[in-house]
Design goal:
Blueprint lengths: L4 E6 L6 E6 L10 E3 L1 H16 L2 E6 L2 E6 L9
Antiparallel strand pairs: 1-2, 2-3, 4-5
């Protein structure tokens, strides 16, 4: 039996980001998956602000993405 790997993916049905275990090259999850959409976007935004001064260009295959992040204000809790 193949070992599972941690995988992160975007659901085409819900448009949410999930993380969970899957078999390599599988098209479905091998057990539970967790919706990590908001924390994943938060971490990526902070990473782009800190490492790329707010603007990042990413090339994947033949697609080029330009991502710009601006921090508007801090919310006091």
């Amino acid at each position: 039996m193949s070992k599972t790997i941690m995988q992160i993916d975007l659901s085409p049905l819900t448009n949410r980001i999930y993380i969970g275990r899957a078999f390599p090259n599988a098209t479905s999850w091998a057990g539970e998956k967790t919706d990590v959409t908001n924390p994943a976007i938060h971490v990526v935004a902070e990473h782009i602000l800190r490492e790329y001064n707010g603007v990042m260009t990413l090339t994947t295959g033949n697609v080029v993405y330009e991502i710009e992040v601006k921090k508007n204000k801090e919310v006091k809790s």
